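Table S2 (text version). Query chain:
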Amino acid sequence: MTTRAASVKTELREDIRFLLENHIPRQLANRFFGWFSQIEAPLLARASIAIWRRFADLDLSEARTQRFTSLHACFTRELKPGARPVDSDPDIITSPCDAIVGACGRIDRNELIQAKGFSYTLEELLIDPQLVRLYHDGQYATLRLTPSMYHRFHAPYDCTVDKVTYVSGDSWNVNPIALKRIAKLFCKNERAVIRAMLRPSGIVVTLVPVAAILVASIRLHFLDVLLNMQYRGEAEIPCLASFSKGQEMGWFQHGSTIIVFAPKDVALCGAVREGAVIRMGKPLMQLRS
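Corresponding structure-token output:
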């Protein structure tokens, strides 16, 4: 098969997958999967996990337990103590999650890349004008959690979270196929904008967990509400939550994306590039001395 023919075949396969994954009733799918995944039935959970393993690289060897009463318990599993060592260097901001690095690098004034050929702006994603100004010409890293990955996310540094902005939206799939076909996808999906002030420098780093199909729920330990399409509270949620580096902040119900933003006096670490696999606690960004 020629290179051109192989490329056409790959494009066709991706188009078919895109149609199958993104042209179903997403809200109905979210509600059904949310209900199904939380059925407390160990036999059903084992059967479902076995099927999942046939289609994905699901590694549970680091999980705190190997017995799950529901799919939800498996998706939101905790890890064994010490499974994710956290870099203690005070100049290092660590990855908040296990992920594959997507688009990353310097923000061009207020514009950043979703995927090749598609861009979006800080205003469209963050909403908050103060954060938009703060990250002009700053740094960003898009971290994609696959469905089989560890789904909890952690503080990237010693920090204080003083505000969360919830943005209601759709739940498009956020895999690479969709990112290459749907403009401004992250700006269309449901998300939470978490503003964290690093201690003691006062530098503000923002985490934006973006929900997706089958994942339209974000749980934050420091809020007493579940952020999903049924949430009817205030969009801006003031809070005062203190975290140490590596401490758990919350989780997705399945797998999705977290976009990390930092001001221009912060740099990406050298190993952080598109396509790289990164684990929670590994170096993501570096403070300039």
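Notes on Table S2: The first helix runs from residue 3 to 22. Residues 3-75 form one domain.
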